[in-house]
Design goal:
mainly alpha; two-stranded parallel sheet; 15 helices; globular
Amino acid sequence: MPGRILSGMRPTGRLHLGNYVGALENWVRLQNEGWHNFHMVADWHMLTTGYENTSDLQAHTHEMVVDWLAAGLDPERSVIFVQSAVKEHAELHLLLSMLVSKARLERIPTLKEQIRDLHLDEQTISYGHLGYSVLQAADILLYRATHVPVGEDQVPHVELTRELARRFNFVYCRDREAVFPEPEAQLTAFPRLRGLDGSRMSKSVGNTILLAEKPEDIVARVKQAYTDPKKARASDPGRPEADLSELDAEGRPVHPGCVVWEYHRKFNPGEADDIARRCRSGELACVPDKRHLAQVLGDALAPVRERRARYEADPDRVREIIADGNVRARAVAEETMARVRDAMHLGTGALEKTR
């Protein structure tokens, strides 16, 4: 039986193919299979690494939600809401923070990666950044989600969420029904799509294709895609897969595989094997292959562009969808927190029971 999922994104504005493949596509599939979807604009999570500048938060939230709707999320079947509009997230975050040690949080792999990638000082990392994963656990447990669609890098966060659910239920629910289910990580089938240059996809790097990209812009973007550097002429045999025989000093492939073929595998699976065969044999040159991929991507994104144009033309409708989602999310959050407070003997309800 379908369960309930909670998943969200930081509001960074318009989304790209990596966001679609890594999350959005899966959200829409689950929605269409009858799951109970809650999708959160994680604006408080933006503050952990970008608290200095919040001037674009509202605009970025609007653009991102428009892309969610353009990708196929149906506000009648999926609850679309903003994290900061539901104050219970903060309350549950505070209560859960009492149940986890600082040392446990410091072992979260993604925290270590952020410290490294953002060149942060471990001694001066903010309290909020350290507790990022506890807030994420509160986000999930507040809606009593049974499953969390994530990429492999987020699995440790789900495991911490499961630990906190078990800890809370053990401490406060020994003589009553458990408040929280232990959510399961649900990995996406195609969890990560590389950027056009072969590295991690990022708008700040400029190696992305946006969901709203026009066909002619897609052509220009795909021209930049990384292919086999040894395939200098059309007749040269190519290497669509990563060449594991040549590794750099850090043990990574010098040739990590052709990005164009990787995109074919995702968006053009019926032809991908034949394209790889023709590349290896020297029958297929990179330039026509890129033109073909641009056409494939343009066709795949056509329904997204069409839906996006409708929502762009009606910003009031987008605001109504968010406001309605906030109300629906808040109703579930309030019910959960009533159970939490009751289990912990907190608040006026507990006092009234003792009279």
